[in-house]
Amino acid sequence: MEIPSLAKVFLCKISSLYETSRMSWLLAQLNLAWNLLLYLLKRPFSWKRGGYRQFVENYRGDRLIPMSSSDKDWMMKFSKCFNCGLCDTVCPALWTLPREKFPGPSLIVTTFARATPDFWAADLDFSLCQSCELCQQVCPNDVPIKEALEFIEVKAQEKLAWS
Question: pLDDT for 94-116, tens place per residue?
Fold first, then answer.
């Protein structure tokens, strides 16, 4: 049984299209493999080494200082405060000083200990805290408030040294 000539032409066209599409796919795969090989060969030679120094230069203007893993652990401890205000009620500094001079332990822990870019702007006189630690004793979540004050003071000094 002989296939009519029109059908032969049609089958030839389909097979050539099929071969062309397979060839295109093969060329695309070869191109992808070649570019991957070039990337892998160039990568060790084009890597920029900056590390810590590069970080410092990138973020110095924003006053963002690097945080160590221990700093992050402290921040997590401070974030346990849910601002119940019990610490403010027992703070002797708040009994004698206005809030403008000493904002109180709750504000210090909830605001300044969580806003790392603003340590330098805290501008608190940390000597106003009487170090009685009554605030820590009444805290239902055992937030280390005294340590938060010390942490903020150290970080504020670090930020000022950066500028």
Answer: 888 888 888 888 888 887 666 66
Six token digits for residue 154: 């150290």
114, amino acid identity: R
Span 64-99, pLDDT tens digits: 777 788 888 888 888 888 889 999 999 998 888 888
Encoding tokens for residue 28?
């695309």
Q: Please say whether the dihedral angle defined by the alpha carbons of residues 10, 13, 15 and 21, taken in this order, is positive or negative.
A: negative
Q: Give the CATH number of the domain where residue 148 resides.
A: 1.10.1060.10
Instruction: Report yes or no on 73 lying in a domain.
Output: yes
How does DSSP assign 134-154, residue by residue?
HHHHH-TT---HHHHHHHHHH
Range of the domain at 41: 5-47
The pLDDT of residue 158 is 74
- What is the model's pTM? 0.57
Q: How many CB atoms lie within 10 A of CB 133?
A: 13
> In the numeric block, which tokens belong to residue 81?
């405060």
Rounded to an integer, what distance in angstroms lies between the CA atom of residue 24 and that of residue 33?
14
Distance CA 15, CA 18 (A): 5
Q: Based on the fold, state whether residues 43 and 119 are members of the same structural domain.
A: no
